[in-house]
């Protein structure tokens, strides 16, 4: 299978990967190419900008959560009608799981999909030393093909020549472009990273300015040439994540999508749809109830703490969700969704706001990150997405705190990085599952299928 592709990696977080990847993606899209963007790792916010750049969906590639064959199937599936794949890395090129060689790094993903790597260096405070840094990244793993370099924060043409000449001479790879220090196109941030696209409104002017800057300073033709020289993509013979043929709709699953809830692995939604779910979006902030004929509910993560007044005031929606749980319909909530389903949320100043009230206790926002990282767990009960005893791989990243659940209602036994109980299973049929743990359904094809089965059974 021929998939032109390249990976945009960085020497570390904060070097400008997302700005550059978004700009390149938009510039190629603006040229008329069908671009499929991907984001390495468990991030939710960066993919929003890459999605915006193509008016489509960016998909996550995660070599820790997904077995290699599943990752390759997902990559192939979403590229089946595209001209080129642009993959944005995570953190530094070789950073991933906390244990060395544990997976999850941009380098690991570049090797799995056999893609050339474009390395982004911020050279604001160096010149020729950039070559020493680039040389280390080029030679650290001989199986990673660093095929080009993009320089960020370049102060002048003299500064550019000093770094560019040294890199090309010492590393033998071309510097295919740069962004000047004067470019004022940084993306806004807050406690979980960048501000989500869903909160920013119309970004067309920003994208046009960024696209113009990319066209002026980066050799897109050279990038396309590198992408088209990528080797033939070899796919596993038997698909497991997506059905081989069309599956008729069996149920309707309502997905919370608004400014407060927008953290989803888009592949999760596509897998649900592919296996027989009709997807209907709804807003816990502004809608009065769940959509008609809802058989199951999926409330992802996001920033409910930014919209506490609106969520508290929407009494009708909160009652609609309580009614869904009481009727035995499956409701699955992750992180921000768990916060919304709790008794309430205390903001950063300690002010309390009443939420849905299905879970015991108040989620309290903290002034520092509470948990971050890849997590292994085991399902303690049969739930809307997993059977009792089923191993789970996911990711935790949250600033709020909720008391650990009692054994009687706990959803998971976390086994790594440290043993603890996590999440809640409640409802008349154990049909409510809420946890801080974010899951990628590509990690285990049983997850999406079981959600559909439980929703279809509730419909019946």
Automatic annotation (TrEMBL):
PROSITE patterns listed in its UniProt record: GATASE_COBBQ (PS51274)
Domain CobQ/CobB/MinD/ParA nucleotide binding: 7-192
One protein family per Pfam: CbiA
Keywords: ATP-binding, Cobalamin biosynthesis, Glutamine amidotransferase, Ligase, Magnesium, Nucleotide-binding
EC number: 6.3.5.11
InterPro entries recorded: CbiA/CobB_synth, Class_I_gatase-like, CobQ/CobB/MinD/ParA_Nub-bd_dom, GATase_3, P-loop_NTPase
Domain called CobB/CobQ-like glutamine amidotransferase: residue spans: 252-444
Alphabetical list of CDD domains matching this protein: CobB_N, GATase1_CobB
Catalytic residue positions: 335
Gene Ontology MF: a single term: ATP binding
Pathway(s) the chain acts in: Cofactor biosynthesis; adenosylcobalamin biosynthesis; cob(II)yrinate a,c-diamide from sirohydrochlorin (anaerobic route): step 10/10
Superkingdom: Bacteria
Cofactor: Mg(2+)
GO biological process: cobalamin biosynthetic process
Top enzyme class: ligase
Comment field (misc): The a and c carboxylates of cobyrinate are activated for nucleophilic attack via formation of a phosphorylated intermediate by ATP. CbiA catalyzes first the amidation of the c-carboxylate, and then that of the a-carboxylate.
Role, per record: Catalyzes the ATP-dependent amidation of the two carboxylate groups at positions a and c of cobyrinate, using either L-glutamine or ammonia as the nitrogen source.
Family from the record: Belongs to the CobB/CbiA family.
Entry domain remark: Comprises of two domains. The C-terminal domain contains the binding site for glutamine and catalyzes the hydrolysis of this substrate to glutamate and ammonia. The N-terminal domain is anticipated to bind ATP and cobyrinate and catalyzes the ultimate synthesis of the diamide product. The ammonia produced via the glutaminase domain is probably translocated to the adjacent domain via a molecular tunnel, where it reacts with an activated intermediate.
Protein name: Cobyrinate a,c-diamide synthase
Gene: cobB-cbiA
């Amino acid at each position: 299978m021929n998939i032109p592709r390249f990976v945009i990696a960085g020497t570390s977080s904060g070097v400008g990967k997302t700005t550059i990847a978004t700009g390149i993606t938009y510039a190629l899209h603006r040229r008329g190419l069908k671009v499929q963007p991907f984001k390495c790792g468990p991030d939710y916010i960066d993919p929003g900008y890459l999605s915006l750049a193509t008016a489509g969906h960016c998909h996550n590639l995660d070599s820790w959560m997904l077995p290699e064959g599943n990752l390759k199937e997902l990559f192939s599936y979403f590229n089946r009608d595209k001209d080129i794949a642009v993959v944005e890395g995570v953190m530094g090129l070789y950073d991933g799981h906390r244990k060395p060689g544990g997976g999850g790094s941009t380098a690991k993903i570049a090797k799995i999909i056999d893609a050339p790597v474009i390395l982004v260096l911020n050279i604001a405070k160096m010149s020729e030393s950039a070559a020493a840094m680039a040389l280390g990244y080029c030679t650290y793993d001989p199986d990673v093909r660093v095929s080009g370099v993009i320089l960020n924060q370049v102060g002048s043409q003299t500064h550019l020549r000093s770094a560019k000449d040294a890199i090309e001479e010492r590393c033998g790879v071309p510097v295919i472009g740069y962004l000047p220090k004067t470019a004022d196109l940084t993306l806004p941030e807050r406690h979980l990273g960048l501000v989500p696209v869903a909160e920013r409104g119309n970004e067309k002017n920003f994208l046009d300015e960024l696209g113009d800057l990319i066209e002026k300073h980066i050799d897109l033709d050279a990038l396309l040439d590198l992408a088209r020289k990528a080797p033939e993509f070899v796919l596993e013979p038997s698909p497991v994540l997506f059905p081989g043929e069309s599956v008729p709709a069996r149920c309707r699953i309502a997905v919370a999508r608004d400014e407060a809830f927008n953290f989803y692995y888009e592949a999760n939604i596509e897998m649900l749809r592919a296996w027989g779910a009709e997807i209907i979006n709804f807003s816990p902030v502004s809608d009065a109830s769940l959509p008609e004929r809802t058989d199951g509910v999926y409330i992802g993560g996001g920033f409910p703490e930014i919209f506490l007044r609106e969520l508290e005031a929407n009494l009708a929606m909160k009652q609609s969700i309580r009614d869904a749980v009481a009727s035995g319909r499956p409701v699955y909530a992750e992180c921000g969704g768990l916060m919304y389903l709790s008794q309430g949320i205390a903001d950063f100043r300690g002010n309390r706001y009443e939420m849905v009230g299905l879970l015991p206790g108040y989620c309290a926002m903290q002034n520092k990150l509470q948990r971050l990282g890849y997590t292994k767990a085991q399902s303690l009960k049969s739930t809307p997405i997993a059977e009792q005893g089923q191993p789970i791989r996911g990711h935790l990243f949250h600033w709020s705190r909720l008391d650990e659940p009692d054994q009687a209602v706990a959803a998971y036994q976390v086994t790594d990085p440290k043993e603890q109980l996590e999440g809640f299973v409640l409802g008349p049929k154990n049909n409510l599952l809420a946890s801080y743990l974010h899951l990628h359904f590509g990690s285990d094809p049983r997850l999406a299928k079981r959600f559909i089965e439980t929703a279809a059974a509730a419909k019946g």
